[in-house]
Structures are given as C-alpha cells and as structure tokens.
Design a protein that fits this description.
single chain; alpha/beta; Protocatechuate 4,5-dioxygenase, Chain B; two-stranded parallel sheet; 10 helices; globular; Extradiol_dOase_DODA; Dioxygenase; zinc; dioxygenase activity; oxidoreductase
Length: 263
Amino acid sequence: MNDLPSLYISHGSPMTALRPGLTGTRLSELAAALPRPRAIVVASAHYLARQPLVGGAAQPTTVHDFGGFPPALYELRYPAPGDPGLAARIAERLDQAGLAAHVDPQRGLDHGIWVPLRLMYPEADIPVVPLSIQPMLGPAHQYAVGRALAGLREEGVLLIGSGSITHNLHDFGAGYDANHQAPYVQPFVGWIGQQLARGDTAALLDYRRQAPFAERAHPTDEHLLPLFVALGAAGERAAAQRLDAGVDLGFLAMDIYRFDTAD
C-alpha cells in the first residue's frame, strides 16, 4: 500500500455540516483522490488535554459540543466505529517517543472530527480514533506528536489535524462577511502558505513571533496546533499542497493542506 498523506483541515463553524459550500466540495474531492484508509486518526482543536490522550472507544459517540445552533444540527450523527487496538498502539508509540500518553475509553467524536468526516466519508464505515492536543505545550510539542505517529501512514492510517487556519471568534458581530474580510486573514494565510512551500519548519514553529497578525488570527492557538501534528506526520521533507476552500464569515479561513513525503 502506498503511504497516505497527512492532512490539515479547517473545519469551520459547526454549520459547515448543514451548509458545506466550497469546503464540502474540496473535502469530497480530496477524499475521492486518496486511497481508502484503513483507519483515520484525528487530532482535533476541540479535544484538549495536559498530556496526549487517545480515544479508545469501540463505538465513539457523536458529540455536539456547541450551543445556540438550529435543532437540525443536533440531530446529525456520525456512527463510525472506533479502533481500541489502534488507540493502544498510538499511545505506545507516543510513550516510546517520550510523550507520555493515555487511552481514554469514553471519548467521542467532537465537531472538529465528525463535521469534516461526514463530508469526506459520509458512509461512516472507516474506524476513527480521536487524538488530543496540548495547548499549553506549543507547536514544537505537536510537531513531535506527528513525528511519533508518522509510521502509521505506511499502514493505511490517515492522520488528520483538524482546526482552522484563522480563528478569532471575537470577530463575530464585527461586520465581516463574504464581501468584507478581516484585514489580517490574507496576510496570515499567505505567510503560512509561503513557509510551508519553502519547507521552513523553524519559522512555522515560531509563528507567534514571525507571522503577520499572529495574535489576531489566533488569540489562542489551539486551532492552529493540529497543523503541526499533520506537518510532523509527513516527515522532514514534506511537500505541502494547499486547497483553497474560501473564507467563512469573513474571518474564518478554510484552507486545507495535504502533506506528502517528498521523493
């Protein structure tokens, strides 16, 4: 089996599940272009812990971890099976890399996982394993998590980081929309894209100091940290391909990145 790429997905608002728009098109196209995974591991911006946790439920629940949305959104389910055996192996790999990990046997699938996966694999017939991120430990730690799990790609496991390339919820109600983007979106998105194209991992890991408008694009960085899991999982010579999925609400850039190991 050819190695699968690793992915970074901007999952956007929970409403993406009901109004997928361009994001839905891009995710569907991406899934169709990939070999069918044996299993999917998702490091989600909505699964936060002080140390790595791995979801080990045999049948993870669909978690509606949001409020104030239309009733139809709470009726959606993503009944994919889990993979407790794979979860245990992930924890073991992380332990071996010096990243003490534990299996959480009750963890379900938050909207950072099930919203994009419903658009990629609507049949919900591929096992899914959630993976936490550690917001207090920063990009280099998340990159190390990805590196520790990179070998799973050779086994047909699709490794995904799910977050948002820009994520400043303070901008709700600020007057931004499809015709009036927040001024920091394009400079920040462009800088990230340039560093990924150059393979400048050191600059990316230091994005809080080097990227334009970093603190406006990410007042807290839990939604960008999954990018570093995906980048680490692609290896030291990762080739990045950007899939432009537009900008939601004028301030949530929906970029998707595919990382392949360069020849």
